[in-house]
Amino acid sequence: MDTLAQIANAVITGDDERVEELTRQLIGGATPPASILDDGLIAGMNVVGERFKHHEIFLPDVLLAAKAMYAGMDLLKPLLVEAGIPSMGRVVMGTVRGDLHDIGKNLVSIMLQGAGIEVIDLGRDVSPEQLVEAANAHDAPVIGMSALLTTTMPVMREVVERIDKEGLTGKVKTIVGGAPVNEAFAREIGADAYGYDAANAVDRVKQLLVKT
Ligand code: B1M
């Protein structure tokens, strides 16, 4: 088994120490950080998601896998951010109210910072009020939202509606993402953009920043 497959396996088994050790081994070598992320950490988490869906594993296993994933992500973060040239623009980010999934949102934040975009990350379980208030307070022209639960997706619509209610339409743009979200949903709720993964989110945010 190659090291990337071993990293994926260690995420699946929730072995954070092993993930850290293997990630350290690869950093600085021929494997690019983005590949360690995609082909090791995320590949492992995808298997966890499938197994959880089919009731082959349970919530504590998923929590351990998330902790293991962070053990690798924490090491990769400075490398993914490294290339950044600060102040291309400012984005307020958050996982929406009721939703505690923050791994994907954190990845998007890291990649945005890597692209030289300033990120005000409000964390998870963030209300529409908090998101819009932060955009106002920090003069941020873009709000990025993540949702991993079908039950929390409607909160994204609330944010778009709040922007409209406060007369900020056109001034504050929105981008949505997360596993259950898609382009059609983004259009339906009136969001300005949809990002299917972290790299795509960077491209879409850059486009939004140019337009503001
Ligand atoms: Co939960 N969970 N979880 N979970 N969990 C899912 C989402 C689920 C699909 C699992 C399943 O059934 N197969 C399911 C949702 C089903 C549904 O809504 N239809 C589910 C469930 C049911 C739950 C609970 C309700 C379980 C329970 O309590 N019974 C509960 C809910 C808690 C809550 O939020 N209120 C729960 C809890 C948890 C943990 C806390 C244990 C843990 C989260 C830990 C954490 O985030 N700190 C967890 C995890 C880890 C998962 C899975 C396995 C993995 C999610 C993940 O991190 N993926 C997930 C299954 C899955 O998604 N396959 C699952 C890796 C991450 C890199 O991908 O977040 O999709 P993702 O982000 C991607 C893209 O989506 C995109 O870029 C990222 C990088 O490519 N993206 C954006 C994300 N945000 C973006 C924003 C953008 C643009 C792109 O613009 C701003």
Number of helices: 9
Topology as a string of helices (H) and strands (E): HHHHEHEHEHEHEH
Rounded to the nearest angstrom, the distance between the terminal CA atoms is: 48 Å
Give the tally of β-strands.
Answer: 5
Offer a quick outline of the entry:
With 212 residues, this protein is an alpha/beta fold. It has helices spanning 3-12, 16-26, 33-53, 59-81, 103-114, 128-137, 153-165, 183-189, 198-211, and strands at residues 90-95, 118-121, 142-146, 173-177, 193-194. Strand 1 (90-95), helix 5 (103-114) and strand 2 form a beta-alpha-beta unit.
Keywords:
212 residues, Rossmann fold, five-stranded parallel sheet, 5 strands, binds CO-5-methoxybenzimidazolylcobamide
Q: What's the helix and strand layout?
A:
Layout: H1 3-12, H2 16-26, H3 33-53, H4 59-81, E1 90-95, H5 103-114, E2 118-121, H6 128-137, E3 142-146, H7 153-165, E4 173-177, H8 183-189, E5 193-194, H9 198-211
Parallel strand pairs: 1-2, 1-3, 3-4, 4-5
Helix pairs in contact: 1-2, 1-3, 2-4, 3-4, 4-5, 5-9, 6-7
The protein binds CO-5-methoxybenzimidazolylcobamide.
CO-5-methoxybenzimidazolylcobamide binds next to helix 3, helix 4, helix 5, strand 3 and strand 4.
Account of the 3D structure:
With 212 residues, the protein is α/β, with parallel strands linked by helices. The protein folds into two domains: 3-83, Orthogonal Bundle (Methyltransferase, Methionine Synthase (B12-binding Domains), Chain A, domain 1), CATH 1.10.1240; 90-211, Cobalamin-binding domain (Rossmann fold), CATH 3.40.50. The chain is 57% helix and 10% strand. The protein contains nine helices and five strands, in the order ααααβαβαβαβαβα. Strands 2-1-3-4-5 form a five-stranded parallel β-sheet, sandwiched between helices. α5 links the parallel β1 (90-95) and β2. α1 (3-12) packs parallel to α3. The longest helix has 23 residues, at 59-81. It starts with a helix and ends with a helix. 42% of the residues are buried. The structure holds CO-5-methoxybenzimidazolylcobamide.
